[in-house]
Design goal:
Shape: globular
CATH class: Alpha Beta
Number of domains: 1
Number of strands: 8
Bound molecules: zinc ion
CATH topology: TIM Barrel
Helix content: 25-40%
Order of helices and strands: EEHEHEHEHEHEEHH
Distance between the termini: 23 Å
Strand content: 15-25%
Number of helices: 7
Radius of gyration: 16 Å
Strand order of the largest sheet: 1-2-3-4-5-6-7-8
CATH superfamily: Metal-dependent hydrolases
Largest sheet: 8 strands, parallel
């Protein structure tokens, strides 16, 4: 089986640990991560640059300018992990930082990796302000929203859903929108997750389909 981990972090470069994983999308959570990722030079690690909503207290002025510059200089760099989390403080600041980063992704036309916990209503409000045609590929990571949210996202956006467990909602998600991720957890064995998804979808080709889905994100098309 050939799998690309659609969401990990620097503490777990999953392709080095699991033989079925051939590449790892590695999401930054803060600016220190950006520097590590920029110096990594590993062709099996696909970096995304962003500031995670859990780590806004250490945010430095000018982060948006520096993020723009990284994207300008690295044509395959993606944006993430960015988002909103209802259970974390300072939603106004979270929204402000999310919008700044989303607009940078729009400007540079890069895939975006989204962390959203209990805040899809707010994200829909934000997305409404943009033309659907200008929004980039978005990946809803560790998705655990409702079927209604799935339907609204699929109807309106170039959205993918990545999973680190074989959730039942997968039944309601089209095959060509599904990705798998470790989320940097070493106990999440992606070949097992893919097998379980193949069972849920009753489709023995899911491993190939998930791989091709991830390649579409990486190729930005
Ligand atoms: Zn993450």
């Amino acid at each position: 089986m050939k799998i690309i981990d659609a969401h990990s972090h620097l503490e777990y470069i999953s392709y080095k640990a699991q033989p079925d994983i051939v590449g790892t999308i590695c999401c930054a959570t803060n600016e220190n991560d950006w520097n590590v990722l920029l110096n990594m030079n590993d062709k099996n690690v696909f970096p995304a640059f962003g500031i995670h909503p859990w780590f806004l207290e250490n945010i430095n002025d000018g982060f948006d300018v520096r993020l723009s510059k990284i994207l300008e200089q690295n044509k395959s760099a993606m944006v993430g992990e960015i988002g909103l989390d209802k259970y974390k403080p300072n939603m106004d600041k979270q929204i402000e930082v999310f919008i700044k980063q989303l607009e940078i992704a729009i400007k540079h036309k890069r895939p975006v990796f989204i962390h959203c916990v209990g805040a899809w209503d707010k994200i829909f409000q934000i997305l409404k302000k943009y033309k659907k045609s200008e929004l980039p590929i978005m990946v809803a990571h560790a998705f655990n929203g409702s079927i209604e949210i799935v339907e609204n996202l699929i109807a309106g956006y170039n959205i993918m859903f990545s999973f680190n467990r074989a959730d039942n909602i997968i039944k309601n998600i089209p095959d060509d929108r599904i990705l798998v991720e470790t989320d940097a957890k070493s106990n999440v064995v992606l070949s097992d997750i893919v097998d379980k998804i193949a069972d849920i979808k009753n489709n023995e080709n899911m491993a190939d389909i998930i791989y091709q889905n991830t390649m579409r994100v990486l190729n930005n098309d």
